[in-house]
Amino acid sequence: MTKEIATPARTKELLKKYGFSFKKSLGQNFLTDLNILHNIVKAAELDAQTNVIEIGPGMGSLTEFLAKTANQVLAFEIDQRLIEILDETMAPYPNVTVINQDILKADIEKVTKEVFHDALPIKVVANLPYYVTTPIMMYLLTSPLKIDGMTLMMQKEVAERIVAKPGTKAYGTLSIAVQYYMAAQISFIVPKTAFVPQPNVDSAILQLTKREQPLVTVEDESQFFALVKAAFQQRRKTLWNNLINYFGKDEETKERLQSALDFCAIDPQRRGETLSIQEFAALSDQLVKNK
Ligand code: SAM
Fold first, then answer.
1. Whole-structure pTM value
2. 142 shares its domain with 235
3. EC number(s) of the enzyme (predicted)?
């Protein structure tokens, strides 16, 4: 019987057979730990009534586990050299479709409609390339495609920033951007020894669950995110200094900011990182009202 792709022996054999050399620039760190793969699939809560999108299948180590559990798997792989390897490794799994494309350039809504035969709930499961984790996550979060949940492997430090609470060093624009759309929690930590080649840092599995509604209701989403961005512009500065640097130092703007802060009972001398998402939402709505 053929061994799982993620066993160190089979991985080594495939690398040798195809003369594959890892590209650091594409974030190529392949998982070679069957236990961790089991736990990822468990955390994702997949079943035969779920379709899965994977980003970066590599040689198919995770894809194989997804194929055995889910209904259909759609995998986007940017590296053309991996396609012939995937042709071999995915041959036993007719429910896997591999697309040779940069996920950030793909129309996932369209491709999903073409590939998935049944209108089942869609989940994303991926060991993300480190160099592009945030853009991929933001692309998925803001995509019109209805995604029920995401189980994503990323650098531990990035996962910690995403789940961070107000008043902590890790809390920032990324925490707010993700928590606005989805409930986030770290499922478990993955040591760097689980990969070939070994990355420099440990990873974490982040579990994201779709909220029925965004965490806060705001009048104007772009104003809300602009305000959050402004508040974290320079972390050592007070909220007031960051806001006037971003929105303008003229008297009219200052008055508008001061009156919105007063209305929301937010002390301008606080730092952005102490504001809850609800406080940002209230302040944003007040600024829209006073426009
Ligand atoms: N899933 C495999 C595993 O767990 O062993 C490989 C994971 S590796 C961390 C990331 C994979 O994403 C690589 O195969 C890489 O070529 C691919 N990749 C990098 N950037 C990508 C992009 N923009 N779109 C799609 N795939 C990408």
1. 0.95
2. no
3. 2.1.1.182
Residue 215 covered by a domain? no
Cα distance between residue 163 and residue 5, in whole Å: 32
Pocket of ligand 1 (CB under 6 A): 26-31, 55-58, 61-62, 76-79, 82, 102-104, 127, 129, 132
pLDDT in tens, 266-283: 999 999 999 999 999 999
What domain count does the chain have?
2
Q: Is residue 216 part of a domain?
A: no
**ipTM for the complex shown:** 0.99
Asked if the structure places residue 75 within a domain, the reply is yes
CATH number at residue 228: 1.10.8.100
- What the block records as the tokens of 10 is 């089979």
Nearest-atom index, ligand 1, CA of 136: 23
Smallest CA separation from ligand 1 atom 11, residue: 56
Tens digit of each residue's pLDDT (9 = 90 or more) over 115-135? 999 999 999 999 999 999 999
The confidence score (pLDDT) of residue 1 equals 61
For residues 125 and 225, membership in a common domain is answered with: no
In this prediction, residue 290 has a pLDDT band, given cuts at 50, 70 and 90, of confident
